[in-house]
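Course assignment 3, question 2. Fill in each field.
Student: A.L.
Task: Predict the tertiary structure for the chain below.
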Amino acid sequence: MNTEWSLECLYQGYDDPEFEKDMNRLQELACQIKDSSSGLSGQSAGDMVPYLLGLLEDYYETMSGLDIYVSLRSSTNTADKETKAWEERIMQINSSISGALAGIERYFAGVQNLELIEPGSPLVKEYDFYLREKKREAAHMLSNEAEEIISRMNLSGGAAWGNLQEYLTSTAAADYRGQKLTLSEVRNLAYSSDAEVRKDAYQAELACYEPIRDSVAFAMNYLKSQVNTVTNLRGYASALDMTLEKSRMKRETLDSMLGAMKEYLPRFHEYLKAKASYLGHKNGLPWYDLFAPIGKCERTYSLSEAKDYLISHFKGFAPDMADMIQRAFDEEWIDFYPRAGKVGGAFCCNITTRKQSRILTNYDGTLSDIVTLAHELGHAYHGQQIENHRILNTDYTMPVAETASTFNEIVIMNAAIREAEGEEKLALIESRLQDTTQIICDIYSRFLLEQAVFDGRKEKFFFADDLCKVMLDAQKEAYGDGLDPDVLHPYMWICKSHYYSSSLSYYNFPYAFGGLFARGLYAQYEKEGEAFLPKYRALLHATTVSTVEEVAAMAGIDLTKPDFWRESLASIGKEIDQFMELAGR
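Answer field:
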């Protein structure tokens, strides 16, 4: 089994004639878009709207293959100069048409009677939601010239600061017991069954941030400052308001979810204190034991064992999911192991034009790593449900992005827990509580940090020590007395790439949304069995052409009311009770 992914479904390399052909085609289409955007006023919507939609389809189909290929190569070798050059070239072409795109979108927004075009144009009918979204977004659109300036300046602004954080964290070396480990490798040791290994790895991790902390602090400050500036120019009240509109999500939904989460935090604190007591700590759980395994589930899994485990457990849930997992392993969709220059964490990239996906992990063989694989394969399954949409209809928003992935986690963990007994059951329940605590307590702390930085950047600069203090304060609020206040993680603002995107702010609350929304959906699956699956697939299919609330309504859920969120959290409470009983606490 190849442990690195293959990108040959896209291109054979930068010297592939198809790569050169598509780069030339992209430039030609960019010129056509610029030419077409001039003089749109007075043009017949019946002719121009279908023409412009077709032109945009051609551009994005060409661009997506190029952009995905380059970004995937960059993620496994952030120091590759040739890749960086092509990455910048594609970004420059995209930036060069931002003003023209603004003009086209403004033209779409000005069309008064879309329904008059639809009967004669199936293309326009399929893009009804897309076009109505452009009408809504037009209220925050700037002039064509301003849009192009912002996009061009972002290349050496927000995007560059994000690249700096990615490069520094992917090339940072931790000195662990005389060995040089990547950041991903040393962070993986947090799951070791050896208490001394966990503690030493934690100290080595913190030490490796020291040489890069000031540079990453500057990246955080100037990136958030840029987003604040663009937010103001577009007339949004805050970066959060802009994020919610891009997410097609109401503020009432976010407030209901966060309110329910805050109500329920004490139960998570109970779990953390019980785990601390089990491990012999008296002042709450020290950060380095947050992921300490409990019970007896020390088995590690080879890649072939992980494949068999996933397929066997998903076959009973959805055969098409099991078939897709088989393909992912057999057709080299997955890049498994950590190595120098490779980014940390895990992600899935849907390649809808090829009806495939690519998954990056930093696999270490634990059950937690199998759950991570299941999570990313959930994203791939989501991609499978939307691959028959037209290309401009293939973007789903941040909150629903985590639905299928978290649903997969629930499927795999529920099956594993059902099959286990005694110490193994304790280990599995505790492992899931670890993950759930991350999407509730840790995500809430990340939300608090990002909110504090966005608000604070209007008046001050956050040096590294300032960011560490904000991070620690956020952790204390989110984790309460469940963690040892003297042994937290002041540098979590450095290692999480989600903070460093100029186009995606607050990429934290969607994980809590996905986790709790998926629990509600899974409860329906338990009641309905196989009859739920067509509804589930239809719901995922609709995520790219619906609001968050409309998607939930397909399952009879009202997200703006706290009741749904409380019910999902209550199901976690039952697992906390199970853990306390099995752990004798």
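Instructor remarks: The chain has a mean pLDDT of 94. Residues 393 and 544 are 6 Å apart (CA to CA).
Grade: pending
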